[in-house]
Amino acid sequence: MGQPQQLIHLLWxxxxxxxxxxxxxxxxxxxxxxxxxxxxxxxxxxPPGDNNSSVTSLVVERNQITLSNGDKISLAGxxxxxxxxxxxxxxxxxPARYLSVVPNxxxxxxxxxxxxxxVPESFYGLDALRVLNLSHxxxxxxxxxxxxxxxxxxVVDLQGNPWNCSCRLLSSIQEIRAIGxxxxxxxxxxxxxxxxxxxxxxxxxxxxxxxxxxxxxxPSGTVGHSQQPKxxxxxxxxxxxxxxxxxxxxxxxxxxxRFAACVAALALATSILIVCAVKGxxxxxxxxxxxxxxxxxxxxxxxxxxxxxxSETDGGHVSQKTFTFTHPEGEEDLHYFEDPYVKVxx
Length: 346
Prior knowledge:
Radius of gyration: 43 Å
Strand content: 5-15%
Largest sheet: 7 strands, parallel
Structural class: alpha/beta
């Protein structure tokens, strides 16, 4: 019986490993790519890495990440990380120097979160950062000198935010244009003040900074609202979300539970078949013995109900007769016997 039990345990182990692999989407099988994709698996924290991790691209989209202190410790375990995609999560704030634990980061995508404010040192330590996606958040303005430490920054996506286009609040965005950074997206509009609601952000910049917006001498890297952003060809591929809806719904549950239920049902059915195959013969013998005992009991009852049994011999020889008498209940037992040596005259 030890071998069938081992088979059952092995089957359950295989089912558990299959479910765990499905839920975590494990690291991509192609080792040369070094991409870890954890999209839409309902994570509340970034899975930790080890100091020897070779992952260069971490995709944790459509989850419930908030960038807590535990997430910062987890990110420190990816020393070779170059791309970090945290789109469609629950990030509301980026503390100062938070991302300095991944200094080699080149692409950072935080679109479709709930970021409402930043501090001047939110991206401190990201000297290699070239692409930054902050689209479709709740930003109304950016702090001054936010992008000054980012010497290699080339593309910024700010569309889909409720910008306040007061001139004093546009200084940081103007600073982006002044240092030659390309502003991606064509849906970057003002939400306030009321008289500028719906106005294109680039037009508001032109009104506030007419000299730098002079068409005869445009700043390096400036993109008008009628132009498409130009991403340098040597940049890693990054998807910039262009959905105009700021209130993006959170990811709906997928079909992971169905897969888990199917695997569990398969494991249970296989276990039942193995048990039946092993226990079947013994169960049949028990059933057969039970029926045999029942037949014996019925035969005994029929024998006790018989009124008499006769035993005789052939050929005129001495015969022996046995009589069995029954009497009503309550009467004394009467014992009769026949002497076998008494000859009976026929």
